[in-house]
Amino acid sequence: WTSGFLPTVHQGVEFRAKGDPVLYLTDPKGMSRKGRRDVIDTVNQLNQAQLQQAGDPETETRIAQYEMAFRMQASVPDLMDIKSEPQHIIDMYGAKPGQSTLANNCLLARRLVERGVRFVQLFDKGWDHHSDIFRSLPGRCRQMDQPVAALIKDLKQRGMLEDTLVIWGGEFGRTPMAQAIAPDGKTQVAGRDHHIDAFSIIMAGGGIKAGYIHGQTDELGFRAVQDVVHVHDFHATALHLLGIDHTKLSVRYAGLDMRLTGVKGKIVDGILA
Question: Is the pTM of this model over 0.70?
C-alpha cells in the first residue's frame, strides 16, 4: 500500500472486509463530531507551524491525512452499505452484502468512482494455479467474469465509462505447457508456472478502442511476437489516457528526477479510440 517513490500524500487507503472498513473510523466513546473537528483543527495548526519551519513534505502528508480521515468518518459508512443498491444491480454483479467477495468489491469500486475517488485498486487472490488447473481455474473464471462485466456495463449505463479507465491484469502470464507435480512419485497434477514472455491485459473505457485485440503470441502462446507492448509502453499509454505526458512527469526522489517510464516508453496508438 505504499506510494513507491511518490510522496506519501499519494499513498492508498486499504479497506477491510470486516469491522470498520478503515481502522479507527469510529469516534471513541464520548467524542462528538464537533470535538473531533476541534482536535483536528488544533493538530493541523501545529503541523502547519512545523511545515513552515522545516518544510518537510511528510508534515504536509499528515495534514492531508487528518483532513481525509475526518471526511471519511462521515462518508465511508454510507459508501460501504451496498444493501442500499437496487436489487437488480446487486443481482447483476452477483454481490452478497455482508460478505467478502470480488463481486462486492466491484460494486464498491463503482460507488467509489461515482463519489469522485480517482484511483481504485481491487485484489482477487487464488490464481496461483501450479496444480489442478482443470478443476480450479474454471471456477475462478466464473467468479471473475460476472462482476467484472457488470462493473463495465454499470459504468457505461451511468455515462461514466468514457471517463473511467478499467484495467484488468495479473502479476504475470502463465506457461502454455503443463507443470507436472508428482508428490507421491505417481500422480500427475497439471498446472501452469509463472511466465513473463506472454501476458494479457484487458482495458476498457477511458478512451480505449472497444472490441479490439492488440498483439499476438506465437502458435504456442509462449512468446509475444507481434505488436509487443513493453511495460514502459503500457505505463506511457495509461498516463496518456489520464491526460499526463509521461516524458514530462518526474518526481524528485533520492536526489534523482524519477520518471515512471524511465528513459523509455511510447504510447500504443493502436488501442486508442
Answer: yes
